[in-house]
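Dear support,

I submitted the protein below through the web form. The confirmation email said the job was done, but the results page showed an empty box. After a refresh the structure appeared. I'm attaching both so you can tell me whether what I see now is the final result or a partial one.
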Amino acid sequence: MTGADPGLFGPGSVTWQLHGDPMMWIAGIRALYLQALHPRAVRGVMQNSDFRRDAWGRLMRTANFVGTTTYGTTEAAERAGARVRKIHSMLTATDPDTGERYGVDENGLLLWVHCAEIDSYLDVLRRSGFRLTDAESDRYVAEHRESARLVGLDPAAVPADRAELAAYFEKVRPELAAGPEARDVDDFLLHPPTHPLLVPLREVLWQRVAQLAYASLPPYAHELYGRPAPAPATVTRQLRLTGLLLRRVPARVRWQLPPKHILRAMARLGPDARPAPYKLGR
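What the results page shows now:
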């Protein structure tokens, strides 16, 4: 549709193509594992929500936010960002060791959550066979200065390419630890509560997904969690196989699942807006 609003990123962006891939779900779980290693950040989550009882809701809200900001209109993306900023502005957490009370919207905490997400999306997708050049990967990191702005960060203070992202992780590593809250997240992701009849399915299917997401973490994260890091080449082969299997499911079938952001974007912009990896590099 001529003149329709393409949103914050648009069909010509790396983000538009990347976020339509089914491996984003595994990347999102990796991001949760990584984010939990920042004690102040994960404490803000655990003290302001019943993570164990509403973890699925939290995961779906995050997926909905990513879908809205990627494929929604500019107005919808700005509304989603304003909603997140308002919620964060009202929440605080307490350091149990010092008694310090702090806002969950501290710039350092927002930056950690942002960088852990972008690193996870990029790492899992590339290792699973989604073809991105180094230049396109840098473009992806730069594009997400816009999503960082939505949650309240100054885009100029957010990594703009992979080198700056790597430098950020080197700088923040002394602050990371697998504290009690991280252990709770780890335990939940491996053994989420479910109906007794679904326990076998959880053991067969979900644990494999969670274990693969965990295996894809960087070496320092494995060290902090205290479990041996698997061989990176082995994990990459598993990611590629999983990506191959998931991508065999027709996109139209996958996109029928709620909340259908991609189908709505195509209805707004026309069928040529369909995200597809081959469109990169044009």
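Response: this is the final, complete result; the empty box was a page-load delay. The mean pLDDT is 92.
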